[in-house]
Design brief:
The chain is α+β, with helices and mostly antiparallel strands. It has helices spanning 32-39, 43-59, 130-145, 149-155; strands at 6-8, 11-12, 22-23, 26-27, 64-68, 72-76, 80-86, 90-95, 118-123, 128-129. The strands form 3 sheets. The protein has a 5-stranded antiparallel beta sheet. It has a 3-stranded mixed beta sheet with strand order 2-1-10. α2 packs across α3 (130-145). It is globular and about 45 Å long.
Length: 156
């Protein structure tokens, strides 16, 4: 069980953890470099990163993970979906959406005027709105499949 509440619909639930993780019945291939990045973090940051990792893989079974910028975990499918960056007192999830994916639940915490990516920052004990974050991942993936947020933005 996760040590912090996970908001999913109107109930809290715990999600499994591990290298090749299952969320529901969906296995994914874990990159050992991403494992090493996460395992080097304090426990509370590991839990956040593992949950975000589970959610992005649950958004689409074809999501791959890699390391970019020397050490930063990225999740990709026809382009960047998101990246993780742990700081001293929080974990940033960078959403590569070009600022066009709706955020009806207000989970975006930074980068509102950024043209490439916005941020969802989690501090120790913060609730994670798993449903809203997963929906954003799905929209980013759909935009990537449609040619990327730049093309979608230009068309729309």
């Amino acid at each position: 069980m996760r040590p912090f509440p996970i908001i999913h619909a109107s109930r809290s639930l715990g999600l499994g953890k591990g290298g090749s993780t299952l969320i529901g019945a969906l296995p994914y291939e874990a990159d050992p470099r991403v494992n090493a990045y996460i395992n080097a973090l304090p426990q509370w940051q590991q839990e956040i990163c593992r949950l975000v990792r589970d959610l992005v893989h649950a958004a689409d079974p074809q999501v791959a993970e890699t390391i970019k910028r020397t050490r930063q975990p990225y999740f990709v499918l026809n382009g960047n979906i998101c990246a993780l960056l742990a700081a001293k007192d929080h974990v940033n999830v960078f959403l590569y959406d070009g600022g066009i994916v709706p955020d009806p639940e207000g989970i975006i915490t930074g980068g509102h005027d950024n043209e490439t990516a916005r941020t969802v920052a989690f501090q120790r004990g913060d609730p994670i709105n798993a449903a809203a974050l997963t929906q954003m991942f799905k929209r980013i993936i759909a935009n990537n499949r449609a040619g990327g947020w730049r093309r979608v933005k230009a068309q729309g």
